[in-house]
Amino acid sequence: MVNQKGSRQKQARILRVFRKIHRVTGACLFIFFSIVAITGLLLGWKKNSKGYLLATSQKGVSTSFNDWLAVDSLEKKAVYYLDSLQTGLTKTIDRIDFRPEKGMVKFLFTDHFTALQLDASNGRLLGVEIRRADFIEKVHDGSIVDHYFHLSSGSFKLIYTTIIGLALLVFTITGFWLWYGPKRMRAHV
User: In 10 A of CB 137, how many CB atoms?
Assistant: First the structure.
């Protein structure tokens, strides 16, 4: 009987510790978990946002590579179109997204979330998009801080995702124990 009472007291003590860890972690990281949850929800819905979060890819004239302009010609046209928008945005290209099935090339830039869709065969501007999903993804994984402070190492993202990932693991373990612990204690009565 004494052994069972000591065991119950030990289990109750463990439960109190887990509850405190769960509560303190939740209080400290509430804002970050809210950001991750909201942005994760938005990213899950990006393809169903009717072009608001993820722009619709336009179609060019030809899907045949033989009809396409050279990449340097397309690049010059993209920079020209970006200049013509008179936005003062930097023209440094981050990447070029080729869409062969659409006959379209998308130019994405380094310092902002604007992208240009060009017809690959004639270089005509098909669309200007604000890459909201890219912005939301950077907020979601913390790399938005690296982006705005020009931290090429990605150090903030690494620290942020490590903290959030470990906290989620702690929440999972302590949450499970907060559910299972009382059941276990009742079973030993």
Answer: 17
Per-residue model confidence as pLDDT tens digits over 109-127: 998 999 999 999 999 999 9
At position 178, the amino acid (one-letter code) is: L
17-52 b/e with 16+ CB inside 10 Å = b?
Answer: ebeebbeebeeebeeebeebeebeebbeeeeeeeee
Q: Please, are residues 128 and 140 in contact by the beta-carbon 8 Å criterion? A: no
pLDDT value of residue 3: 64
pTM for the predicted model, two decimal places: 0.81
| Residues 29/166, Cβ–Cβ less than 8 Å | no
The secondary structure of residue 61, as a DSSP letter, is S
For CA atoms 136, 140, 143, 148, give the dihedral sign: positive
Any residues with CB less than 8 A from the CB of 11 and at least 6 apart, and which? Answer: 181, 184, 185, 188
Q: Name the phi and psi angles at 88, rounded to 5.
A: 75, 15
> What pLDDT, on the 0 to 100 scale, is given for residue 106?
97
Cα separation, 173 vs 169, in Å, equals 6
pLDDT band at 188 (very low <50, low <70, confident <90, very high): low
